[in-house]
């Protein structure tokens, strides 16, 4: 049990160090109002050996910023994000695989032929292959 506590503490310390690094090197202040970011205003959405995607949230003006930090090059880019999604939703969507162009065309065909409605598609969104399920109706 002590080893689990040590692992969690080590993981938390590592996350805090990463957050401090990104606050120092990527964004110290909100671009909109100039308020200094704190570690709790930052979420690391995705992190791998090549890049990190970071979400900054300003407590003062409620503005959101997304940043991508390219690890090997040490460069970053930021962009304002106007969204009503909360950080958990952004994290969830960032973990999903992409939609292929064929899947988009399949859904377009289903909608244009009148086989299904948008509501039908939304009912099946959590499922793996939307079009196969809807075509079998």
Spell out the helices and strands N to C. Answer: HEEEEHHHH
Portion in strands: 15-25%
Query: C-alpha Rg, in Å?
Result: 20 Å
Helix content: 40-55%
Query: How many angstroms separate the termini?
Result: 52 Å
Q: State mean pLDDT (0 to 100 scale).
A: 77
Order of strands, widest sheet: 1-2-3-4
Q: How many β-strands, per DSSP?
A: 4
For the sheet with most strands, the description reads: 4 strands, antiparallel
Number of helices: 5
Parts with pLDDT < 50 across at least 5 consecutive residues: 127-131
Please indicate the count of domains: 2
Shape: elongated
Structural class: alpha+beta
Present the secondary structure layout.
Elements: H1 2-25, E1 42-47, E2 51-57, E3 64-70, E4 75-81, H2 87-94, H3 101-112, H4 118-124, H5 130-135
Antiparallel strand pairs: 1-2, 2-3, 3-4
List keywords for this structure.
single chain, 137 residues, alpha+beta, four-stranded antiparallel sheet, 5 helices, elongated
